[in-house]
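Section 5.1 Outputs to date
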Amino acid sequence: MSGMETMKRPLAVARDRAALLCIDLQEEHRQDQRLLAVGFDGVIENVRRLQGAARRHAISVYHFAYIVDIAASLPHHPKLPDGRSAFSDKDDPLTAICPEVAPVDGERLVIKSEASAFGTGLGDALKAAGVEWLFVCGVWTEACVDATVKAALKLGFRVVLVKDACGSGSVAMHQTGILNLANRIYGGAVVDTDGACRLMAGEPVTAWQPDRPVPIRYGFDDAGALYASL
């Protein structure tokens, strides 16, 4: 049995203590040529499935949008010649959440101005609601998704990272971003959309769950295959 296989074990989630975090699923990632996420339509479809499963099983859905007010941004934040933010500017209509995965029925939309969703007081709100498990999806994998997952782990949450409901600016950026998190998602797991929907329905699945430091060592030649095997 390979090292990859030994990291796959049965997983069940207490769905009455779970929430779904949908990170930065904004129109700019499929319309702004500077910010296109590869395979974004597929990501949106998988997130739509996750949201449907969460709503059917009374799992809270939280939405996040990265929006920059240049007047309140970091000193070296990139700007356009006219002084607006070089990306995700507060006055850009493309910062809107894609309609297929937008909030419904009073679901919370949180505006953030940094990579992690936890810079918004989210941790306290989730703990007050009794949440222990977080299903995480969105863009970009190696940026805002990565920062959110690491912040969640630091706060003691257990994270289920849904690999095919995340995306980035290239396949390589996405796949290596997932592999890097898979190496360190202690107490959590990496699954695909099918597996996440089954977990939300109360079914156990077999999932990647690391229990030792850096179990995946990848190179240019095998990163794709290792990603596929998660």
